[in-house]
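pls design
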């Protein structure tokens, strides 16, 4: 048996299934279906391996320009748009001559989604959970996965591959042995969550909250709520919606939602009692008379855990499985990470929106700490027209709180700085009433960022604790790296 023939044994879909799912057209004039290979899928030619199905997306770059590169890396099958096929006959003929299987579709991204939806339908017994919301999606997903893995074979999307292309790519990790699937869904535009729900058709969907993240793309929180609610679009009567009871949009999310509704936010509903905050070490509580430790700090993370716990109970997990699932949980990069040594660093810089920024600041302000508390806050991105208002609100909030030192980084944090400095009569960078030192650095280039890092290093002393909070695009982990090196903290991650 040839190597090519061996690969067909692991095909994720047959050629006929791909054509049926996508309404595509095979461009090869002669093609032996037994030679069809589809063992993995990629939208980046650099990620192609032997047997990959390459999907060239059309955006700022035209993915069709990388078909040859994809083939050199092992791609055997490629989508092309009908438009490309019509106007690039010479290239099409050359690709076919080289042995590529070419399938013409009207739109490559939508073809990817349709193919993914068809693939998911091949697993009718799989329990599928969708998680969406303005913040807390990834943390909730990771908590739930940690729980479910104690009893079930569980598949999930890695990192935050939750987009219009990330989720369809992720579902191709599903295999026959999987019993539960947990996929988070993000959005950057109207209609995106419904598209993703159509791919997955979840049995259970969790909405973490309705906030201002991506308001620059959707315009209002009402439209954000409408978009998030569309995760329930393909529900059946047996489906379960897990909705935050204290969210301002809770009632709206429940209205006309098909299936069972589970409200989360109250400890009592899960028979949780005697919750004790342990600061940076998380919390401890009693559940079914067993003491359970939860290693992530802050009430906002505990709320994410409550959503996951409701789903875990629905899945039939017992207290011993729940206890192990929570206690073995570890934070992912940039989400509730803590470095503890001569100084302490709270690295919460994978994402930032007004709700998560406020929650982090409020928690940090109430946290008991013997040394100084230092805030390092950077721009909240993707807020669009609402950016100035929201950054000014951060500045107003900081004005009423007590911190030893505040660093504001990024051009949009300039608005927060202006609010924070209003009313100052003496001293450019000192709020004499609260005796806090305020620094601002509008960095754009790496050199500017280096200046900001140096300013921070000069002012940090042993015994300080620092909160780093900002959007992913601000790359605040560079500050953590500098601090860890300066204070010899390699290998000091806790939690």
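designed seq:
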């Amino acid at each position: 048996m040839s190597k090519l023939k061996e690969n067909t044994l692991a095909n994720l879909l047959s050629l006929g299934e791909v054509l049926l799912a996508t309404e595509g057209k095979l461009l090869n004039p002669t093609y032996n279906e037994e030679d069809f290979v589809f063992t993995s899928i990629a939208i980046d030619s650099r990620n192609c391996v032997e047997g990959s199905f390459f999907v060239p997306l059309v955006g700022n770059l035209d993915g069709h320009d990388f078909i040859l590169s994809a083939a050199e890396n092992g791609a055997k099958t490629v989508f092309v748009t009908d438009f490309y096929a019509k106007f690039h006959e010479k290239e099409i003929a050359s690709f076919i001559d080289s042995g590529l299987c070419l399938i013409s579709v009207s739109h490559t991204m939508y073809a990817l989604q349709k193919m993914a939806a068809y693939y998911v339908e091949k697993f009718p017994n799989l329990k599928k959970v969708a998680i969406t919301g303005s913040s807390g999606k990834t943390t909730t997903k990771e908590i739930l996965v940690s729980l479910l893995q104690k009893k079930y074979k569980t598949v999930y999307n890695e990192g935050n591959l939750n987009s219009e292309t990330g989720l369809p790519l992720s579902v191709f990790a599903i295999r026959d042995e999987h019993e539960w699937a947990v996929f988070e869904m993000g959005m950057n535009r109207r209609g995106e969550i419904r598209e993703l729900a159509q791919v997955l058709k979840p049995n259970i969907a969790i909405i973490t909250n309705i906030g201002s993240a991506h308001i620059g793309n959707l315009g209002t929180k009402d439209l954000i709520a409408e978009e998030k609610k569309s995760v329930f679009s393909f529900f059946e009567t047996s489906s379960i919606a897990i909705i935050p009871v204290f969210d301002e949009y809770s009632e709206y999310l429940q209205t006309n939602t098909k299936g069972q509704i589970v409200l989360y936010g109250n400890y009592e509903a899960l028979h949780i009692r005697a919750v004790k905050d342990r600061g940076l070490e998380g919390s401890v509580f009693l559940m079914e008379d067993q003491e359970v430790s939860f290693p992530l700090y802050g009430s906002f993370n505990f709320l994410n855990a409550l959503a996951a716990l409701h789903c875990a109970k629905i899945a039939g997990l017992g207290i011993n499985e729940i206890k192990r699932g929570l206690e073995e949980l570890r934070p992912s990069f940039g989400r509730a990470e803590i470095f503890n040594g001569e100084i302490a660093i709270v690295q919460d810089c994978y994402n930032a929106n007004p709700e998560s920024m406020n929650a982090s600041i409020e928690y940090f302000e109430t946290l008991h700490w013997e040394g100084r508390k230092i805030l390092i806050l950077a721009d909240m991105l993707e807020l669009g027209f609402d950016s100035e208002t929201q950054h000014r609100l951060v500045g107003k909030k900081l004005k009423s709180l007590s911190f030893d030192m505040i660093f504001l980084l990024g051009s949009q944090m300039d608005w927060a700085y202006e609010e924070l400095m209003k009313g100052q009569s003496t001293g450019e960078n000192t709020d004499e009433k609260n005796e806090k030192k305020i620094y601002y650095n509008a960095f754009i280039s790496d050199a500017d960022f280096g200046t900001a890092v140096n300013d921070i290093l000069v002012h940090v002393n042993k015994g300080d604790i620092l909160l780093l909070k900002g959007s992913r695009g601000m790359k605040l982990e560079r500050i953590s790296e500098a601090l860890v090196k300066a204070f010899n903290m390699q290998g000091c991650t806790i939690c």
